[in-house]
Amino acid sequence: MSAATGHALGLRGLTRRYGSFVAVDDVSLEVGQGEFLTLLGPSGSGKTTILMAVAGFVAPSEGAVLLDGQDITPLPPEKRNFGMVFQGYALFPHMTVAENVAFPLRVRGMSRAERDEKVRGALDLVQLAAFAGRLPKQLSGGQQQRVALARALVFDPNLLLLDEPLSALDKKLRAELQEELKALHRRIGRTFINVTHDQEEALSLSDRIAILNHGKLVQAGAPGALYDRPRTRFVADFLGKSNFLEGVVRQPHPGGFMLEAGAAQLVVALPDGEPPPAAGARSLLSLRPEKITVLAEGEAAENIVEGRIVSWAYLGAGFSLRIETAGLGEIRANLPTWRSAFAPAEGLPVRLGWRAEAAVPVAEDVA
Amino acid sequence: MDGTYRPGPFGRSLAWVTALYLVLPILIVIPVALTDQRYLSLPQDGISFRHFETVLTSPEWLGSIWQSFTIAVAATVLSVSAGTLCAIGCWRISRRATELVRVLMLLPLIIPSIVYAIGLYRYFGPLGLLDRFAGVVIAHGVTGIPYVVITVSTALASFDPRLEQAARGMGASLSQTLRWVILPRIAPGIFSGAIFAFIHSWDELVMVLFIASRDVFTLPRRIWDGINENLDPAMAAVAVLLILFTLALLMADRALRRRSEG
Asked: Could you say which residues from 108 to 167 on chain B have a Cβ atom under 8 Å away from some Cβ of chain A?
Protein backbone atom coordinates (compact mmCIF):
# COMPACT_ATOMS: atom_id res chain seq x y z
CA MET A 1 0.00 0.00 0.00
CA SER A 2 1.54 3.29 -1.03
CA ALA A 3 1.59 5.95 1.64
CA ALA A 4 0.24 9.50 1.58
CA THR A 5 -2.04 9.24 -1.44
CA GLY A 6 -5.10 10.71 0.19
CA HIS A 7 -7.77 12.29 -1.95
CA ALA A 8 -9.84 15.36 -1.21
CA LEU A 9 -13.61 15.16 -1.05
CA GLY A 10 -16.04 18.03 -1.40
CA LEU A 11 -19.76 18.25 -0.74
CA ARG A 12 -21.58 21.10 -2.48
CA GLY A 13 -25.05 21.93 -1.21
CA LEU A 14 -25.86 18.26 -0.70
CA THR A 15 -29.59 17.75 -0.13
CA ARG A 16 -31.63 14.59 0.12
CA ARG A 17 -35.38 14.61 0.48
CA TYR A 18 -37.70 11.66 1.14
CA GLY A 19 -41.13 12.99 0.25
CA SER A 20 -41.57 16.04 2.46
CA PHE A 21 -38.88 14.88 4.91
CA VAL A 22 -35.49 16.51 4.43
CA ALA A 23 -32.86 14.01 5.57
CA VAL A 24 -29.89 16.11 4.46
CA ASP A 25 -30.33 19.87 4.12
CA ASP A 26 -27.87 21.84 1.97
CA VAL A 27 -24.64 20.48 3.45
CA SER A 28 -21.36 21.84 2.09
CA LEU A 29 -18.12 20.48 3.45
CA GLU A 30 -14.50 20.05 2.38
CA VAL A 31 -12.44 17.06 3.47
CA GLY A 32 -8.71 17.52 2.94
CA GLN A 33 -6.21 14.99 1.59
CA GLY A 34 -5.37 12.43 4.25
CA GLU A 35 -7.77 13.94 6.74
CA PHE A 36 -9.77 11.94 9.30
CA LEU A 37 -13.19 13.54 9.33
CA THR A 38 -16.03 12.41 11.58
CA LEU A 39 -19.68 13.12 10.90
CA LEU A 40 -21.21 13.33 14.36
CA GLY A 41 -24.85 13.68 15.27
CA PRO A 42 -27.79 12.04 17.01
CA SER A 43 -29.79 9.38 15.16
CA GLY A 44 -31.83 10.94 12.37
CA SER A 45 -29.39 13.81 11.93
CA GLY A 46 -28.58 12.75 8.37
CA LYS A 47 -25.00 11.65 8.97
CA THR A 48 -25.47 8.15 7.55
CA THR A 49 -27.40 9.51 4.57
CA ILE A 50 -24.43 11.79 3.77
CA LEU A 51 -22.04 8.84 3.97
CA MET A 52 -24.34 6.77 1.74
CA ALA A 53 -24.45 9.65 -0.76
CA VAL A 54 -20.65 9.78 -0.76
CA ALA A 55 -20.53 5.98 -1.28
CA GLY A 56 -23.10 6.24 -4.07
CA PHE A 57 -25.90 4.22 -2.48
CA VAL A 58 -28.11 7.27 -2.08
CA ALA A 59 -28.63 9.70 -4.96
CA PRO A 60 -28.73 13.33 -3.79
CA SER A 61 -31.90 15.31 -4.56
CA GLU A 62 -29.69 18.35 -5.09
CA GLY A 63 -26.03 19.19 -4.83
CA ALA A 64 -22.87 17.37 -5.79
CA VAL A 65 -20.14 15.11 -4.46
CA LEU A 66 -16.66 15.99 -5.72
CA LEU A 67 -13.48 13.93 -5.60
CA ASP A 68 -10.35 16.03 -6.11
CA GLY A 69 -12.59 18.68 -7.66
CA GLN A 70 -14.29 16.30 -10.11
CA ASP A 71 -18.02 15.73 -9.95
CA ILE A 72 -18.67 12.05 -9.16
CA THR A 73 -22.37 12.41 -8.30
CA PRO A 74 -23.64 10.35 -11.27
CA LEU A 75 -21.22 7.44 -10.71
CA PRO A 76 -22.70 4.21 -9.29
CA PRO A 77 -21.03 2.84 -6.13
CA GLU A 78 -19.07 0.15 -8.00
CA LYS A 79 -17.33 2.80 -10.11
CA ARG A 80 -16.22 5.04 -7.22
CA ASN A 81 -13.41 2.92 -5.78
CA PHE A 82 -14.21 3.79 -2.17
CA GLY A 83 -13.54 1.36 0.67
CA MET A 84 -16.34 1.01 3.15
CA VAL A 85 -16.70 -0.56 6.58
CA PHE A 86 -20.38 -1.15 7.24
CA GLN A 87 -22.20 -1.09 10.51
CA GLY A 88 -22.18 -4.76 11.56
CA TYR A 89 -19.27 -5.19 9.09
CA ALA A 90 -21.26 -7.00 6.34
CA LEU A 91 -18.64 -9.73 5.97
CA PHE A 92 -19.68 -12.47 3.56
CA PRO A 93 -20.58 -15.32 5.92
CA HIS A 94 -19.98 -18.07 3.35
CA MET A 95 -16.41 -16.97 2.62
CA THR A 96 -13.28 -17.34 4.72
CA VAL A 97 -11.41 -14.32 6.01
CA ALA A 98 -8.96 -14.54 3.10
CA GLU A 99 -11.79 -14.90 0.55
CA ASN A 100 -13.58 -11.92 2.04
CA VAL A 101 -10.49 -9.77 1.77
CA ALA A 102 -9.78 -11.09 -1.74
CA PHE A 103 -13.32 -10.26 -2.94
CA PRO A 104 -12.65 -6.71 -4.21
CA LEU A 105 -9.53 -7.99 -6.02
CA ARG A 106 -11.42 -10.92 -7.57
CA VAL A 107 -14.06 -8.50 -8.81
CA ARG A 108 -11.28 -6.56 -10.53
CA GLY A 109 -10.06 -9.72 -12.27
CA MET A 110 -6.68 -9.73 -10.54
CA SER A 111 -4.55 -12.89 -10.96
CA ARG A 112 -4.53 -15.38 -8.11
CA ALA A 113 -0.85 -14.90 -7.23
CA GLU A 114 -1.14 -11.14 -7.09
CA ARG A 115 -4.35 -11.46 -5.09
CA ASP A 116 -2.78 -13.76 -2.51
CA GLU A 117 0.08 -11.36 -1.97
CA LYS A 118 -2.19 -8.34 -1.49
CA VAL A 119 -4.46 -10.27 0.87
CA ARG A 120 -1.49 -11.29 2.96
CA GLY A 121 -0.33 -7.68 3.12
CA ALA A 122 -3.76 -6.44 4.16
CA LEU A 123 -4.18 -9.12 6.83
CA ASP A 124 -0.71 -8.33 8.18
CA LEU A 125 -1.74 -4.70 8.40
CA VAL A 126 -4.57 -5.62 10.80
CA GLN A 127 -2.59 -8.44 12.49
CA LEU A 128 -4.93 -11.22 11.40
CA ALA A 129 -2.66 -13.26 9.10
CA ALA A 130 -3.11 -16.32 11.34
CA PHE A 131 -6.89 -16.28 10.83
CA ALA A 132 -6.95 -16.30 7.02
CA GLY A 133 -8.69 -19.69 6.78
CA ARG A 134 -11.44 -19.03 9.33
CA LEU A 135 -15.04 -18.13 8.66
CA PRO A 136 -16.27 -14.75 9.96
CA LYS A 137 -18.53 -16.36 12.56
CA GLN A 138 -15.50 -18.05 14.13
CA LEU A 139 -14.00 -14.63 14.94
CA SER A 140 -14.70 -12.23 17.80
CA GLY A 141 -16.40 -8.90 17.13
CA GLY A 142 -13.11 -7.01 17.23
CA GLN A 143 -11.49 -9.44 14.81
CA GLN A 144 -14.44 -9.20 12.41
CA GLN A 145 -14.11 -5.45 12.53
CA ARG A 146 -10.45 -5.73 11.55
CA VAL A 147 -11.29 -8.10 8.67
CA ALA A 148 -13.80 -5.53 7.43
CA LEU A 149 -11.05 -2.90 7.59
CA ALA A 150 -8.59 -5.09 5.68
CA ARG A 151 -11.24 -5.80 3.04
CA ALA A 152 -12.01 -2.11 2.67
CA LEU A 153 -8.33 -1.18 2.28
CA VAL A 154 -6.92 -4.04 0.19
CA PHE A 155 -7.83 -2.53 -3.19
CA ASP A 156 -6.18 0.86 -2.58
CA PRO A 157 -9.43 2.82 -2.37
CA ASN A 158 -9.53 6.56 -2.89
CA LEU A 159 -11.38 7.05 0.38
CA LEU A 160 -12.22 4.92 3.39
CA LEU A 161 -15.79 5.30 4.64
CA LEU A 162 -16.67 4.01 8.09
CA ASP A 163 -20.32 3.65 9.17
CA GLU A 164 -20.39 3.40 12.99
CA PRO A 165 -17.46 0.97 12.82
CA LEU A 166 -17.13 0.47 16.56
CA SER A 167 -20.72 0.67 17.76
CA ALA A 168 -21.18 -3.10 18.11
CA LEU A 169 -18.20 -3.54 20.44
CA ASP A 170 -17.99 -3.31 24.22
CA LYS A 171 -16.43 -0.27 25.80
CA LYS A 172 -12.95 -1.61 26.47
CA LEU A 173 -12.53 -3.15 23.02
CA ARG A 174 -13.85 0.03 21.47
CA ALA A 175 -11.11 2.07 23.14
CA GLU A 176 -8.48 -0.41 21.91
CA LEU A 177 -9.75 -0.34 18.34
CA GLN A 178 -10.00 3.44 18.39
CA GLU A 179 -6.27 3.58 18.99
CA GLU A 180 -5.62 1.00 16.28
CA LEU A 181 -7.79 2.87 13.82
CA LYS A 182 -6.00 6.09 14.54
CA ALA A 183 -2.57 4.46 14.18
CA LEU A 184 -3.70 2.85 10.92
CA HIS A 185 -4.84 6.20 9.57
CA ARG A 186 -1.52 7.77 10.42
CA ARG A 187 0.40 4.89 8.85
CA ILE A 188 -1.40 4.72 5.49
CA GLY A 189 -2.15 8.41 5.11
CA ARG A 190 -5.50 7.97 3.40
CA THR A 191 -8.61 10.10 3.73
CA PHE A 192 -11.03 8.58 6.26
CA ILE A 193 -14.66 9.59 6.70
CA ASN A 194 -16.26 8.19 9.82
CA VAL A 195 -19.87 8.32 10.98
CA THR A 196 -20.74 8.00 14.64
CA HIS A 197 -23.12 9.13 17.34
CA ASP A 198 -20.46 8.52 20.01
CA GLN A 199 -18.95 11.90 20.91
CA GLU A 200 -15.97 10.39 22.75
CA GLU A 201 -15.06 8.36 19.67
CA ALA A 202 -15.36 11.46 17.52
CA LEU A 203 -13.17 13.52 19.84
CA SER A 204 -10.42 10.94 20.16
CA LEU A 205 -10.20 9.81 16.51
CA SER A 206 -10.76 12.80 14.30
CA ASP A 207 -8.66 15.53 12.79
CA ARG A 208 -11.89 17.37 12.28
CA ILE A 209 -15.52 16.83 13.33
CA ALA A 210 -18.64 17.95 11.50
CA ILE A 211 -21.66 18.12 13.82
CA LEU A 212 -25.05 17.55 12.25
CA ASN A 213 -28.56 18.06 13.54
CA HIS A 214 -31.85 17.69 11.66
CA GLY A 215 -29.94 17.21 8.40
CA LYS A 216 -28.03 20.47 8.74
CA LEU A 217 -24.33 21.01 9.29
CA VAL A 218 -24.21 22.87 12.60
CA GLN A 219 -20.49 23.36 13.12
CA ALA A 220 -17.27 21.83 11.82
CA GLY A 221 -13.80 22.09 13.26
CA ALA A 222 -10.96 20.45 15.15
CA PRO A 223 -12.14 18.48 18.21
CA GLY A 224 -10.54 20.91 20.69
CA ALA A 225 -11.94 23.98 18.96
CA LEU A 226 -15.44 22.48 18.89
CA TYR A 227 -15.33 21.45 22.51
CA ASP A 228 -13.93 24.72 23.83
CA ARG A 229 -15.75 27.15 21.54
CA PRO A 230 -19.15 25.64 20.65
CA ARG A 231 -21.22 28.06 18.60
CA THR A 232 -24.69 26.78 19.46
CA ARG A 233 -26.48 25.31 22.43
CA PHE A 234 -26.85 22.01 20.54
CA VAL A 235 -23.11 21.65 19.96
CA ALA A 236 -22.30 22.53 23.58
CA ASP A 237 -24.86 20.00 24.80
CA PHE A 238 -24.14 17.18 22.37
CA LEU A 239 -20.35 17.32 22.61
CA GLY A 240 -19.76 16.79 26.33
CA LYS A 241 -21.93 18.23 29.08
CA SER A 242 -22.63 21.86 29.73
CA ASN A 243 -24.32 24.34 32.08
CA PHE A 244 -26.30 27.07 30.39
CA LEU A 245 -26.48 30.55 31.95
CA GLU A 246 -28.84 33.10 30.50
CA GLY A 247 -28.70 36.85 31.06
CA VAL A 248 -28.48 40.36 29.69
CA VAL A 249 -25.30 41.84 28.21
CA ARG A 250 -23.79 44.84 30.06
CA GLN A 251 -20.68 46.91 29.37
CA PRO A 252 -19.52 45.26 26.12
CA HIS A 253 -15.92 46.07 25.17
CA PRO A 254 -13.33 44.54 22.83
CA GLY A 255 -12.30 41.31 24.55
CA GLY A 256 -15.37 40.68 26.65
CA PHE A 257 -18.51 41.81 28.44
CA MET A 258 -20.45 41.52 31.68
CA LEU A 259 -23.50 39.26 31.87
CA GLU A 260 -26.24 40.15 34.30
CA ALA A 261 -27.78 36.77 35.15
CA GLY A 262 -30.30 36.85 37.97
CA ALA A 263 -28.58 38.49 40.91
CA ALA A 264 -25.09 37.69 39.62
CA GLN A 265 -22.71 39.78 37.50
CA LEU A 266 -20.53 37.44 35.43
CA VAL A 267 -17.29 38.40 33.70
CA VAL A 268 -16.96 36.94 30.21
CA ALA A 269 -13.76 37.11 28.16
CA LEU A 270 -13.80 36.60 24.39
CA PRO A 271 -10.94 35.38 22.19
CA ASP A 272 -9.13 37.97 20.06
CA GLY A 273 -11.14 39.29 17.17
CA GLU A 274 -14.54 38.04 18.33
CA PRO A 275 -16.86 41.05 18.52
CA PRO A 276 -18.85 41.38 21.76
CA PRO A 277 -22.67 41.33 21.64
CA ALA A 278 -24.61 44.58 21.90
CA ALA A 279 -25.43 46.00 25.32
CA GLY A 280 -28.86 45.01 26.55
CA ALA A 281 -29.06 41.94 24.30
CA ARG A 282 -29.92 38.56 25.78
CA SER A 283 -27.04 36.11 25.76
CA LEU A 284 -26.64 32.42 26.58
CA LEU A 285 -23.40 31.10 28.05
CA SER A 286 -22.15 27.52 27.95
CA LEU A 287 -20.06 26.59 30.97
CA ARG A 288 -18.39 23.15 31.09
CA PRO A 289 -18.76 21.44 34.52
CA GLU A 290 -15.02 20.66 34.69
CA LYS A 291 -14.10 24.33 34.27
CA ILE A 292 -15.76 25.14 37.59
CA THR A 293 -13.79 24.81 40.84
CA VAL A 294 -14.91 24.78 44.44
CA LEU A 295 -13.06 27.68 46.04
CA ALA A 296 -11.23 27.26 49.31
CA GLU A 297 -11.74 29.70 52.20
CA GLY A 298 -10.51 33.12 51.10
CA GLU A 299 -9.59 31.99 47.54
CA ALA A 300 -10.44 34.47 44.78
CA ALA A 301 -11.72 33.98 41.20
CA GLU A 302 -13.00 36.20 38.37
CA ASN A 303 -16.48 34.73 38.78
CA ILE A 304 -17.77 33.61 42.18
CA VAL A 305 -21.19 32.14 42.92
CA GLU A 306 -22.40 30.78 46.25
CA GLY A 307 -24.61 27.76 46.65
CA ARG A 308 -25.37 24.53 48.39
CA ILE A 309 -24.73 20.93 47.25
CA VAL A 310 -28.04 19.26 46.35
CA SER A 311 -26.53 15.89 45.48
CA TRP A 312 -23.20 14.42 44.51
CA ALA A 313 -21.78 11.27 42.97
CA TYR A 314 -18.36 9.66 43.15
CA LEU A 315 -17.12 8.77 39.64
CA GLY A 316 -13.68 7.37 40.37
CA ALA A 317 -11.60 9.99 38.64
CA GLY A 318 -13.81 12.79 39.91
CA PHE A 319 -16.83 13.98 41.84
CA SER A 320 -19.93 15.16 40.06
CA LEU A 321 -21.81 17.82 42.05
CA ARG A 322 -25.25 19.35 41.64
CA ILE A 323 -25.33 22.73 43.30
CA GLU A 324 -28.32 24.98 43.90
CA THR A 325 -26.94 28.51 43.56
CA ALA A 326 -28.25 31.83 44.74
CA GLY A 327 -29.59 33.48 41.60
CA LEU A 328 -28.19 31.18 38.84
CA GLY A 329 -30.34 28.12 39.37
CA GLU A 330 -28.83 24.65 39.42
CA ILE A 331 -25.23 24.20 38.27
CA ARG A 332 -23.28 21.00 37.68
CA ALA A 333 -19.60 20.92 38.50
CA ASN A 334 -17.01 18.16 38.12
CA LEU A 335 -14.04 18.09 40.49
CA PRO A 336 -11.02 15.80 40.31
CA THR A 337 -10.91 13.47 43.32
CA TRP A 338 -7.22 14.15 43.93
CA ARG A 339 -8.28 17.40 45.58
CA SER A 340 -8.62 15.25 48.65
CA ALA A 341 -9.06 18.19 50.98
CA PHE A 342 -12.61 18.51 49.65
CA ALA A 343 -15.27 16.14 50.97
CA PRO A 344 -18.69 16.73 49.43
CA ALA A 345 -21.86 16.37 51.51
CA GLU A 346 -25.50 17.11 50.82
CA GLY A 347 -26.47 20.57 51.99
CA LEU A 348 -22.83 21.69 52.29
CA PRO A 349 -22.45 25.41 51.42
CA VAL A 350 -19.83 25.97 48.69
CA ARG A 351 -18.35 28.88 46.73
CA LEU A 352 -17.97 28.12 43.02
CA GLY A 353 -15.45 29.94 40.87
CA TRP A 354 -14.45 30.03 37.20
CA ARG A 355 -12.24 32.08 34.93
CA ALA A 356 -13.59 34.75 32.62
CA GLU A 357 -12.72 32.74 29.45
CA ALA A 358 -14.34 29.51 30.75
CA ALA A 359 -17.88 30.50 29.77
CA VAL A 360 -18.60 30.71 26.04
CA PRO A 361 -21.52 32.59 24.48
CA VAL A 362 -23.60 30.25 22.29
CA ALA A 363 -26.55 30.82 20.00
CA GLU A 364 -29.93 29.36 20.86
CA ASP A 365 -30.85 26.67 18.32
CA VAL A 366 -33.41 27.51 15.72
CA ALA A 367 -35.94 24.74 16.02
CA MET B 1 -35.07 -28.27 25.13
CA ASP B 2 -33.57 -28.82 28.56
CA GLY B 3 -35.02 -26.99 31.50
CA THR B 4 -38.50 -26.45 30.11
CA TYR B 5 -41.66 -27.95 31.63
CA ARG B 6 -42.68 -31.24 30.04
CA PRO B 7 -46.24 -31.78 28.76
CA GLY B 8 -48.65 -33.70 30.98
CA PRO B 9 -49.73 -37.31 30.23
CA PHE B 10 -52.94 -36.18 28.52
CA GLY B 11 -51.22 -33.73 26.21
CA ARG B 12 -48.54 -36.25 25.40
CA SER B 13 -50.93 -39.08 24.51
CA LEU B 14 -53.07 -36.74 22.42
CA ALA B 15 -49.97 -35.78 20.45
CA TRP B 16 -49.04 -39.42 19.86
CA VAL B 17 -52.57 -40.38 18.80
CA THR B 18 -52.67 -37.49 16.34
CA ALA B 19 -49.29 -38.44 14.90
CA LEU B 20 -50.39 -42.07 14.51
CA TYR B 21 -53.63 -40.98 12.86
CA LEU B 22 -51.61 -39.06 10.29
CA VAL B 23 -49.08 -41.80 9.62
CA LEU B 24 -51.23 -44.98 9.71
CA PRO B 25 -52.80 -44.63 6.22
CA ILE B 26 -49.28 -44.37 4.83
CA LEU B 27 -48.00 -47.34 6.79
CA ILE B 28 -50.93 -49.61 5.83
CA VAL B 29 -49.66 -49.95 2.25
CA ILE B 30 -46.47 -51.61 3.44
CA PRO B 31 -48.05 -54.93 4.55
CA VAL B 32 -50.39 -54.77 1.56
CA ALA B 33 -47.42 -54.50 -0.78
CA LEU B 34 -45.94 -57.61 0.81
CA THR B 35 -49.07 -59.72 0.30
CA ASP B 36 -48.81 -63.20 -1.24
CA GLN B 37 -52.27 -62.92 -2.83
CA ARG B 38 -53.20 -61.84 -6.35
CA TYR B 39 -55.53 -59.05 -5.21
CA LEU B 40 -55.24 -56.02 -2.90
CA SER B 41 -55.17 -57.58 0.62
CA LEU B 42 -53.12 -58.18 3.73
CA PRO B 43 -50.61 -61.08 3.61
CA GLN B 44 -52.25 -64.42 4.49
CA ASP B 45 -49.80 -67.33 4.31
CA GLY B 46 -46.62 -65.27 4.43
CA ILE B 47 -44.94 -62.25 2.94
CA SER B 48 -43.78 -62.08 -0.62
CA PHE B 49 -41.83 -59.66 -2.79
CA ARG B 50 -43.43 -60.84 -6.03
CA HIS B 51 -45.34 -57.59 -6.56
CA PHE B 52 -42.15 -55.55 -6.29
CA GLU B 53 -40.71 -57.91 -8.88
CA THR B 54 -43.71 -57.32 -11.15
CA VAL B 55 -43.29 -53.57 -10.93
CA LEU B 56 -39.56 -53.56 -11.47
CA THR B 57 -39.73 -55.88 -14.50
CA SER B 58 -42.86 -54.58 -16.22
CA PRO B 59 -42.10 -52.24 -19.14
CA GLU B 60 -45.34 -50.30 -18.49
CA TRP B 61 -44.48 -49.51 -14.88
CA LEU B 62 -40.82 -48.77 -15.63
CA GLY B 63 -41.85 -46.62 -18.60
CA SER B 64 -44.22 -44.60 -16.43
CA ILE B 65 -41.60 -44.22 -13.68
CA TRP B 66 -39.07 -42.97 -16.21
CA GLN B 67 -41.58 -40.63 -17.83
CA SER B 68 -42.67 -39.20 -14.47
CA PHE B 69 -39.03 -38.73 -13.52
CA THR B 70 -38.02 -36.87 -16.70
CA ILE B 71 -41.16 -34.71 -16.55
CA ALA B 72 -40.48 -33.89 -12.88
CA VAL B 73 -36.84 -32.99 -13.60
CA ALA B 74 -37.74 -30.71 -16.51
CA ALA B 75 -40.62 -29.13 -14.58
CA THR B 76 -38.31 -28.53 -11.60
CA VAL B 77 -35.79 -26.74 -13.81
CA LEU B 78 -38.61 -24.52 -15.08
CA SER B 79 -40.03 -23.82 -11.59
CA VAL B 80 -36.63 -23.13 -10.06
CA SER B 81 -35.42 -20.70 -12.72
CA ALA B 82 -38.69 -18.76 -12.92
CA GLY B 83 -39.39 -18.86 -9.15
CA THR B 84 -35.87 -17.81 -8.11
CA LEU B 85 -35.73 -14.92 -10.57
CA CYS B 86 -39.18 -13.77 -9.48
CA ALA B 87 -38.28 -13.92 -5.77
CA ILE B 88 -34.99 -12.05 -6.30
CA GLY B 89 -36.68 -9.45 -8.47
CA CYS B 90 -39.44 -8.81 -5.92
CA TRP B 91 -36.88 -8.64 -3.14
CA ARG B 92 -34.66 -6.14 -4.95
CA ILE B 93 -37.43 -3.83 -6.09
CA SER B 94 -39.58 -4.34 -2.98
CA ARG B 95 -42.42 -1.94 -3.61
CA ARG B 96 -46.16 -2.30 -3.14
CA ALA B 97 -46.50 -3.73 -6.64
CA THR B 98 -44.07 -6.53 -5.92
CA GLU B 99 -46.29 -7.71 -3.07
CA LEU B 100 -49.02 -8.13 -5.66
CA VAL B 101 -46.68 -10.06 -7.94
CA ARG B 102 -45.78 -12.36 -5.07
CA VAL B 103 -49.46 -13.03 -4.28
CA LEU B 104 -50.12 -13.69 -7.99
CA MET B 105 -47.29 -16.19 -7.99
CA LEU B 106 -48.98 -18.11 -5.17
CA LEU B 107 -52.23 -18.43 -7.13
CA PRO B 108 -51.54 -21.95 -8.49
CA LEU B 109 -51.33 -23.06 -4.87
CA ILE B 110 -54.64 -21.44 -3.92
CA ILE B 111 -56.78 -22.27 -6.96
CA PRO B 112 -58.13 -25.86 -6.96
CA SER B 113 -56.05 -27.84 -9.43
CA ILE B 114 -59.16 -29.16 -11.17
CA VAL B 115 -60.12 -25.58 -12.10
CA TYR B 116 -56.60 -25.02 -13.31
CA ALA B 117 -56.73 -28.27 -15.27
CA ILE B 118 -59.93 -27.30 -17.09
CA GLY B 119 -58.32 -24.00 -18.08
CA LEU B 120 -55.20 -25.75 -19.31
CA TYR B 121 -57.25 -28.20 -21.34
CA ARG B 122 -59.05 -25.34 -23.09
CA TYR B 123 -55.99 -23.56 -24.32
CA PHE B 124 -53.50 -26.43 -24.67
CA GLY B 125 -55.76 -27.91 -27.37
CA PRO B 126 -55.25 -25.20 -30.01
CA LEU B 127 -51.56 -25.01 -29.11
CA GLY B 128 -51.10 -28.74 -29.76
CA LEU B 129 -49.75 -29.33 -26.28
CA LEU B 130 -52.29 -31.95 -25.23
CA ASP B 131 -50.76 -35.35 -24.47
CA ARG B 132 -47.28 -33.93 -25.07
CA PHE B 133 -44.22 -34.10 -22.83
CA ALA B 134 -43.76 -30.33 -23.17
CA GLY B 135 -47.37 -29.67 -22.20
CA VAL B 136 -47.13 -31.62 -18.94
CA VAL B 137 -43.74 -30.06 -18.16
CA ILE B 138 -45.18 -26.55 -18.63
CA ALA B 139 -48.24 -27.34 -16.50
CA HIS B 140 -46.20 -28.86 -13.70
CA GLY B 141 -43.42 -26.29 -13.97
CA VAL B 142 -45.78 -23.35 -13.66
CA THR B 143 -47.75 -24.81 -10.76
CA GLY B 144 -44.45 -25.62 -9.02
CA ILE B 145 -43.33 -21.96 -9.04
CA PRO B 146 -45.09 -21.04 -5.75
CA TYR B 147 -42.98 -23.52 -3.78
CA VAL B 148 -39.78 -21.99 -5.11
CA VAL B 149 -41.00 -18.40 -4.63
CA ILE B 150 -41.89 -19.17 -1.00
CA THR B 151 -38.64 -20.91 -0.08
CA VAL B 152 -36.39 -18.44 -1.93
CA SER B 153 -38.26 -15.42 -0.49
CA THR B 154 -37.82 -16.88 2.98
CA ALA B 155 -34.09 -17.32 2.35
CA LEU B 156 -33.86 -13.75 1.06
CA ALA B 157 -35.72 -12.36 4.08
CA SER B 158 -32.79 -13.36 6.26
CA PHE B 159 -30.25 -12.09 3.71
CA ASP B 160 -28.55 -8.93 4.98
CA PRO B 161 -29.03 -6.26 2.27
CA ARG B 162 -25.79 -4.67 3.41
CA LEU B 163 -23.95 -7.67 1.93
CA GLU B 164 -25.17 -6.60 -1.47
CA GLN B 165 -24.18 -2.99 -0.77
CA ALA B 166 -20.78 -4.15 0.45
CA ALA B 167 -20.23 -6.15 -2.74
CA ARG B 168 -21.27 -3.24 -4.98
CA GLY B 169 -19.20 -0.79 -2.94
CA MET B 170 -16.15 -2.95 -3.55
CA GLY B 171 -16.72 -2.73 -7.29
CA ALA B 172 -18.76 -5.86 -8.02
CA SER B 173 -21.19 -5.65 -10.93
CA LEU B 174 -24.77 -6.82 -10.54
CA SER B 175 -24.05 -10.24 -12.08
CA GLN B 176 -20.92 -10.71 -9.96
CA THR B 177 -22.92 -9.82 -6.84
CA LEU B 178 -25.63 -12.27 -7.86
CA ARG B 179 -23.20 -15.11 -8.58
CA TRP B 180 -20.75 -14.69 -5.72
CA VAL B 181 -22.81 -13.22 -2.92
CA ILE B 182 -26.57 -13.64 -3.30
CA LEU B 183 -26.89 -17.10 -4.89
CA PRO B 184 -24.50 -18.89 -2.50
CA ARG B 185 -26.41 -17.41 0.42
CA ILE B 186 -29.84 -18.50 -0.80
CA ALA B 187 -28.77 -21.86 -2.30
CA PRO B 188 -30.39 -23.90 0.51
CA GLY B 189 -33.68 -22.08 -0.15
CA ILE B 190 -33.43 -22.76 -3.88
CA PHE B 191 -32.66 -26.43 -3.21
CA SER B 192 -35.65 -26.77 -0.85
CA GLY B 193 -37.87 -25.17 -3.45
CA ALA B 194 -36.50 -27.56 -6.07
CA ILE B 195 -37.31 -30.59 -3.93
CA PHE B 196 -40.88 -29.40 -3.34
CA ALA B 197 -41.35 -28.55 -7.01
CA PHE B 198 -40.05 -32.00 -7.94
CA ILE B 199 -42.40 -33.78 -5.52
CA HIS B 200 -45.28 -31.63 -6.74
CA SER B 201 -44.75 -32.79 -10.33
CA TRP B 202 -43.87 -36.35 -9.35
CA ASP B 203 -47.25 -37.08 -7.70
CA GLU B 204 -49.53 -34.72 -9.63
CA LEU B 205 -52.60 -36.50 -11.03
CA VAL B 206 -55.50 -34.13 -11.65
CA MET B 207 -53.92 -32.04 -14.40
CA VAL B 208 -52.42 -35.12 -16.06
CA LEU B 209 -55.91 -36.68 -16.25
CA PHE B 210 -57.03 -33.70 -18.29
CA ILE B 211 -54.11 -32.84 -20.51
CA ALA B 212 -52.56 -36.28 -21.16
CA SER B 213 -54.10 -39.47 -22.48
CA ARG B 214 -51.94 -42.10 -24.16
CA ASP B 215 -48.45 -40.90 -25.05
CA VAL B 216 -47.83 -39.29 -21.71
CA PHE B 217 -48.72 -41.79 -19.01
CA THR B 218 -47.15 -40.77 -15.72
CA LEU B 219 -46.78 -42.92 -12.65
CA PRO B 220 -49.69 -41.40 -10.67
CA ARG B 221 -51.81 -41.86 -13.78
CA ARG B 222 -50.89 -45.54 -14.01
CA ILE B 223 -51.69 -46.08 -10.33
CA TRP B 224 -55.03 -44.34 -10.82
CA ASP B 225 -55.89 -46.48 -13.82
CA GLY B 226 -54.69 -49.60 -12.06
CA ILE B 227 -57.01 -48.95 -9.12
CA ASN B 228 -59.93 -48.23 -11.41
CA GLU B 229 -59.45 -51.32 -13.57
CA ASN B 230 -58.12 -54.09 -11.34
CA LEU B 231 -57.03 -54.27 -7.71
CA ASP B 232 -53.47 -55.33 -8.50
CA PRO B 233 -51.28 -55.32 -5.35
CA ALA B 234 -48.48 -54.01 -7.60
CA MET B 235 -49.99 -50.58 -6.87
CA ALA B 236 -49.19 -51.00 -3.19
CA ALA B 237 -45.62 -51.94 -4.12
CA VAL B 238 -45.39 -48.79 -6.25
CA ALA B 239 -46.80 -46.80 -3.36
CA VAL B 240 -44.12 -48.13 -1.04
CA LEU B 241 -41.42 -47.25 -3.57
CA LEU B 242 -42.90 -43.76 -3.88
CA ILE B 243 -42.92 -43.26 -0.12
CA LEU B 244 -39.29 -44.36 0.15
CA PHE B 245 -38.27 -42.05 -2.68
CA THR B 246 -40.11 -39.04 -1.20
CA LEU B 247 -38.65 -39.76 2.24
CA ALA B 248 -35.17 -39.84 0.72
CA LEU B 249 -35.75 -36.44 -0.91
CA LEU B 250 -37.01 -34.89 2.34
CA MET B 251 -34.05 -36.32 4.27
CA ALA B 252 -31.71 -34.77 1.70
CA ASP B 253 -33.46 -31.43 2.20
CA ARG B 254 -33.14 -31.69 5.99
CA ALA B 255 -29.49 -32.69 5.84
CA LEU B 256 -28.74 -29.77 3.55
CA ARG B 257 -30.52 -27.31 5.81
CA ARG B 258 -28.68 -28.59 8.84
CA ARG B 259 -25.36 -28.23 7.03
CA SER B 260 -26.10 -24.68 6.00
CA GLU B 261 -27.17 -23.74 9.53
CA GLY B 262 -24.33 -25.55 11.31
From this structure: 160, 162-163, 165-167
